[in-house]
């Protein structure tokens, strides 16, 4: 078995989760992670046995580790020299600069959904376009919201052949660890219409016609999507068949809000903690069964997205796509999810 050598550039909210998911895979190994300077995250990397590098090549910034308890192996260029592919989880607004570094190093690269599609000209989510990313030089794993929309809409599109969608994104104001963001006591509409969330689906599945609105609300737990999808005539579906379709879809959980006593995002995240997920993460998209209703050709439903974690397994599958080691997306998903479950003894 060929072992893919993976570098993680940025060991924060997403980076630390991606690193664990990569570390769980039999066909991959972490050759290093980066931090901008000495911090608590460096200790976490050391505890995991991940070699630590500096996010920058600047000698002064690398030397900032000298008086710390952390063993910094060098700068980003040194890390790239020993890797096959780099997963960019670096701080925002560094994408263009980092892209040039990756190209200069001749390494394959992946960015996160915070970067624009135009940066790479190619985006990824496993269920929508795994094959289109096969053996590509670089791509962007789409955002948590785009991932969530793709997980439930792509199976519908594959069945129906066409789909028109309007959705409202009820967005968390910040991640739990972000203390400097808001709103605190307000509902903040995103006044750019449409918001970028829905149309971003078209970077991975351009055949789906979709628009979106968004509002930010004072919660840190999850996003909620309120979705209306118009199906074509002769679709042959009913509410029950759609629910069954999603139950058979990888990384989608369908539960009944009333019967399972899980009516809000608070109970969804409590469930994730109860089943032993590290950090209380939920990689799956959560759909409320009793909130799904097909009336004629119009489908209504709600779903919840754990913004810190639904993209994590997608990064693993994307590595296999770029490296050309697994053509079938469902096979990769099965490998990824099984390995993560064993890693955490779930």
Molecular structure report:
With 346 residues, the protein is of the alpha/beta class. It has two domains: 4-142 and 311-343, Rossmann fold, CATH 3.40.50.720; 144-305, Dihydrodipicolinate Reductase, domain 2, CATH 3.30.360.10. 33% of the residues lie in helices and 23% in strands. It has helices spanning 15-23, 40-48, 59-63, 76-80, 95-105, 117-120, 126-129, 144-160, 197-200, 239-247, 265-274, 312-323, 329-343, and strands at 4-9, 28-35, 52-54, 85-88, 108-111, 123-124, 138-141, 164-172, 188-189, 209-217, 223-230, 252-255, 285-288, 293-295, 298-305. Helix 1 packs across helix 12 and helix 12 (312-323) crosses helix 13 (329-343). The protein starts with a strand and ends with a helix.
Quaternary structure of the protein: single chain
- Using only C-alpha atoms, the radius of gyration works out to 20 Å
- Percent strand equals 15-25%
Structural category is alpha/beta
Task: Write a concise synopsis of the structure shown.
33% of the residues lie in helices and 23% in strands. With 346 residues, it is α/β, with parallel strands linked by helices.
């Amino acid at each position: 078995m060929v072992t893919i050598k993976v570098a993680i550039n940025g060991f924060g909210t997403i980076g630390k989760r991606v690193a664990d998911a990569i570390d769980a895979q039999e066909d991959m190994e972490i050759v290093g992670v980066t931090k901008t300077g000495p911090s608590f995250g460096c200790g976490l990397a050391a505890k995991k046995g991940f070699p630590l590098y500096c996010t920058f090549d600047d000698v002064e910034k690398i030397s900032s580790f000298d008086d710390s308890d952390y063993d910094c192996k060098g700068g980003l260029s040194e890390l790239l020299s020993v890797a096959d592919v780099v997963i960019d989880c670096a701080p925002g607004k560094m994408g263009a600069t980092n892209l040039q570094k990756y190209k200069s190093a001749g390494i394959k690269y992946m960015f996160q959904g915070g970067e624009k599609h135009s940066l790479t000209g190619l985006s990824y989510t496993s269920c929508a376009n795994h094959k289109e990313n096969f053996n590509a030089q670089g791509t962007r794993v789409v955002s948590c919201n785009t991932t969530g929309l793709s997980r439930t809409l792509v199976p519908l599109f594959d069945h129906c052949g066409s789909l028109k969608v309007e959705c409202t994104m009820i967005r968390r104001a910040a991640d739990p660890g972000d203390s400097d963001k808001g709103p605190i006591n307000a509902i903040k509409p995103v006044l750019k219409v449409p918001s970028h969330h829905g149309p971003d689906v078209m970077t991975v599945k351009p055949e789906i016609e979709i628009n979106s609105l968004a509002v930010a609300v004072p919660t840190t737990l999850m996003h909620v999507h309120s979705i209306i999808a118009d199906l074509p005539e002769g679709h042959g579906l009913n509410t029950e068949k759609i629910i069954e379709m999603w139950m058979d879809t990888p990384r989608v959980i369908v539960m009944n809000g009333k019967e399972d006593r899980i009516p809000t995002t608070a109970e969804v995240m409590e469930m994730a903690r109860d089943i032993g997920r590290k950090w209380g993460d939920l990689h799956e998209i959560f759909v409320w069964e009793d909130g799904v209703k097909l009336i004629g050709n119009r489908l209504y439903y709600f779903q919840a997205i754990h913004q810190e974690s639904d993209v994590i397994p997608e990064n693993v599958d994307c590595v296999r796509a770029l490296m050309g080691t697994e053509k079938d997306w469902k096979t990769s998903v099965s490998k990824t999810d099984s390995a993560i479950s064993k890693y955490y003894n779930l």
